Amino acid sequence: MTNTQNVQTTETKTTLVIGATGKTGRRVAERLSAKGLPVRAGSRNGQPPFVWEDPATWGPALEGVGAVYVTYYPDLAFPGAAEAVGAFAKLAVERGARRLVLLSGRGEEGAIVSEDALKASGADWTVIRANWFNQNFNESFFLDPVREGVLALPTADAVEPFVDADDIADVAVAALTDDKHIGKTYEVSGPDLLTFHEVSKILTEVTGREIQYIPVTTEEYRAELAKLGLPLEFADLFRLILDGRNASVTSGVEEALGRKPKRFADFAREAAASGVWTV
To answer: Are strands 99-105 and 14-18 parallel, antiparallel or unpaired?
Structure first.
């Protein structure tokens, strides 16, 4: 079989998108489908279903799959993630899905353990280490606080270069469909370092109503997570902002795509125009 035939065979295989209803997974699936490539949704409601906590679902979801976009909820740094990701990656390679693109977290020691577990499978891997998402403000846990007009967070005066989920999805699709990204780790961020004070000012401007930022302690934030029934470990992720390890912009988006990443202010204007923050 020629190299050309190999490429064509790989391209016609299905891509499994784990977390296909999530912020990045949904976008990756949409982009692959728009390219005319077959996609399988890796989710509890998928056909067949995919559940991280149930390894019996992994094999059926991998049937006929040539590549996988791997995301892990709630976070790669959480207990048990590395073991699950490593076991899944090994099975994926055994079943013929060698191309694995992993969404990881920038600056997370626990996430690196999961990255190493995936690489140990022998896969053709690409790792995307992302900063906090812009879409946390309109699709996730900051949505209701923005609507209510108060961001009470344990982030003090720290800065963060928020990255857009559309940029992450574009990098992921490039990695899933082009061999030149194999073996590369892309650290992706937005182009601007912002404090939450600055974020609140931008949100105030685009929504036309005051969005306050109120620094709180980690203990106070944990109590709020408990009220909402969310994992208390989410509070630990704020240390990635507080200790300054990610307080710099990266060139990952430009390296992978040859273009600049989206600015938070541009994201905010688009989100406000959609009406998602309208009270």
So the answer is: unpaired
CATH number of residue 119's parent domain: 3.40.50.720
Beta-bridged to residue 15, according to DSSP, are 39, 67
| pLDDT, tens digit (0-9, with 9 covering 90-100), for 108-139 | 888 999 999 999 999 999 999 999 999 999 99
Q: Considering the domain boundaries, does residue 49 fall inside one?
A: yes
132 and 161 Cβ atoms separated by less than 8 Å:
no
- Give the total number of structural domains in the chain: 1
Q: What is the pTM of this model?
A: 0.92
Helix axis angle, 196-207 to 264-274, nearest 10°:
40
Cα–Cα dist 194/181, whole Å: 29
Token match 């977390």: residue? 19
Domain that holds residue 116: 3-131+164-189+248-261
Instruction: Report if residue 95 sits inside a domain.
Output: yes
Measured CA to CA, the distance from residue 200 to residue 207 in angstroms comes to: 10
Which pLDDT score is estimated for 1?
Answer: 35
In a domain, 266, yes or no: no
Quote the DSSP letter at residue 248: S
DSSP labels, 137-180: GTSSTTHHHHHHTEEEES-TT-EE--B-HHHHHHHHHHHHH-GG
User: Is the CA virtual torsion 211, 169, 68, 104 positive or negative?
Assistant: negative
**3-class secondary structure per residue, 72-140:** CCCCCCCCCHHHHHHHHHHHHHHCCCCEEEEEEECCCHHHHHHHHHHHCCCCEEEEEEECCEHHHHCCC
pLDDT in tens, 50-107: 999 999 999 999 999 999 999 998 889 888 999 999 999 999 999 999 999 999 999 9
pLDDT given for residue 240 in this prediction: 78
Using DSSP, state whether 67 is helix, strand or coil. Answer: strand
